[in-house]
Amino acid sequence: MADQASVAAAGASQPFAAENVATNAVASLAISNATDNKIVDTETPVAPVPAETLAAAVTDVPAHRSHDPTNNAKRTDPFMFGQRFLTQEDDVFEYNAWDHVETDDAFKEYSEKQYELQRSSPVSDFDKSRFNGDPAKWWNLFYKNNTANFFKDRKWLHQEFPILTQICEPDAGPKTILEIGAGAGNTAFPILARNKNPLLRIHACDFSKTAVDVMRKDEGYDTKHMQADVWDVAGTGDESMPPGLGPASVDVAILVFIFSALSPSQWKQAVENVARLVKPGGTVCFRDYGRGDLAQVRFRKGRYLEENFYIRGDGTRVYFFEKDELVKIWTGKPEPAADGEVPDEEEKKEASAEEAETFFTEDNAPFTLEDMGVDRRLIVNRAMKLKMYRCWLQGRFRRK
Q1: 8 A C-beta contact, residue 85 and residue 100
Q2: pLDDT tens-place string over residues 76-111
Q3: In a 3-state reduction of DSSP, which class is residue 110?
Q4: pLDDT digits (tens, 9 = 90+) for 5-48
Q5: What gap in Å lies between CA 172 and CA 187, rounded to an integer?
Q6: Gene3D superfamilies this protein is in (predicted)?
Q7: Angle at CA 257, nearest 5°, toward 255 and 262?
Q8: Sign of the dihedral through C-alpha 206, 396, 298, 133
Q9: Is 367 in a helix, a strand, or coil?
Q10: pLDDT tens-digit readout, 297-334
């Protein structure tokens, strides 16, 4: 699948280059956006207007540019990631968010300087051992301090992954969803609330016992359709599968902002465990952080574990993925180049070197790629006149 930012650029006017972005970067980075939630474009209230004026405006304004909620058409392709393109004629502070906005050269240069500063002051060996040795400890502390109030319910999941709607239909038959890294249930509970399938089962697993306790105490926890358990997706031996599930028993596995919490040394085991659980032809729904996301650029000294891998202030870990890197991890090969795109000899050499480090080959990889998109957003704080670049990767993998 072609990079969605490139698709957007081809179909819109020249993308907006954020002015004075390096100057504004420090102020922007001071605004923490530590949640993993999809950001909703909520607009400030406006004064009522006459019906005839509103009708004329609806006729003239495309749905994706409208402030009127009744005129915001849902996109048909989940991997379009919105169609609000920013052009040089636009007022960047008119909306809370813009889609498919590439960072300009000034911000890229600023980001690279930030990365160099991060590399120059890594986490000490003592702290590496402390944070990597027992990651569940830090997530237990996180959920002890935040309970169920930190993350918002992911009501956007059905839009991004239509298969979740399909298996919740009344006549879908026996279906099993496995959510990995369920946290406080912000994915499982919204799915359960919309479910109409009497034969649906949701297994919500997290390696934080505290998080699982939060789910089990929630008033929406219905044991008829949902089971919450402690499980580490990178577990080995007897702990490689969660309670209540056997091999090839899962129709859909959901990994939303969980793979980034694993150490690179755990990726292969995690993929193998997921592959063992998912039925042939089953689907993995995936969303996580992309390299260059604001959350990565804003890290200061003493947080760098290894390239693209950091420790947050609360002791939890986070990795920021390149698109091709992520596709290789799951399928053994990078995403095919876009039509007409031919890598040069240097790129071929680098690809060969990287291939030697791939966990799987194309032949023995358990998954094939269905879609992988880059969701780039320019998030705007209109009150403070700040611009914040976000980058997420979203994909679907199919079990062979």
Answers
A1: yes
A2: 566 665 667 777 777 777 877 877 788 878 888 999
A3: helix
A4: 333 333 333 333 333 333 344 334 433 333 333 333 332 233 34
A5: 20
A6: Vaccinia Virus protein VP39
A7: 90
A8: positive
A9: strand
A10: 999 999 999 999 999 999 999 999 999 999 999 999 87
